[in-house]
Write a structure and sequence with these properties.
This protein is an all-alpha fold and 180 residues long. 91% of the residues lie in helices and 0% in strands. It contains three helices and no strands. Helix 2 crosses helix 3. The longest helix has 133 residues. The radius of gyration is 65 Å and the shape is rod-shaped. The chain starts with a helix and ends with a helix. 1% of the residues are buried.
């Protein structure tokens, strides 16, 4: 059994009638055309602006990343230069320290030689003074002893001096023979 379309529309409220279907389609096309003419350019413009903003953000991010990479490279170069400079300063300080130590050692050795030479010259001067004093004392003792042995006074200075010198020269030659 077939129900005509009009009867079917009267019976089912979801199925439109032909005039409603035509009027609905025409109104839809008009509304779609108005919306397409008015709203579509705004929608496209808004989408383009969003795309530009996103692309600009990406570009800015890429530029910032490139700049950051460049700054990082500069910082690394500066750090490398600073390390090299520190190494150079350390080596210069070590060289200067070695120089100062060598200079101080040299000064100490020179001071030591000077003190040793001064001590040796002082010892030699004191030795000479002791020898002179000893000669004088030995001479006077020898003269006194000789005058007691001989029984006469040996007060003549020249004779005394010659006798003392001969006696001491004899002692020196004897001590040299024994020392050798």
């Amino acid at each position: 059994m077939t129900i005509p379309l009009a009867d079917a529309a009267a019976q089912d409220p979801l199925i439109p009638t032909w005039p409603e279907l035509i009027i609905g389609t025409v109104v839809f096309v008009i509304v779609f055309g108005v919306l397409a003419r008015m709203l579509l350019p705004r929608i496209i413009k808004t989408l383009n602006e969003r795309e530009d903003a996103i692309q600009g953000g990406i570009n800015r991010a890429d530029e910032a990343q490139a700049e950051a990479a460049q700054l990082l490279e500069q910082y690394r170069a500066q750090l490398s230069d600073a390390r090299q400079e520190a190494s150079r300063i350390r080596s210069e300080a070590q060289e200067q320290g070695a120089q100062i130590i060598a200079e101080l050692r040299e000064r100490a050795e020179a001071e030591s030689r000077r003190i040793t030479e001064a001590a040796q010259s002082q010892i030699e001067a004191e030795r000479q003074q002791a020898l002179i004093s000893l000669r004088t004392e030995v001479g006077s003792l020898a003269t006194e002893l000789a005058s007691r042995i001989v029984g006469e006074s040996l007060t003549d200075q020249a004779r005394q001096s010659r006798m003392v010198d001969r006696f001491l020269d004899g002692l020196e030659t004897q001590s040299n023979r024994v020392g050798q």
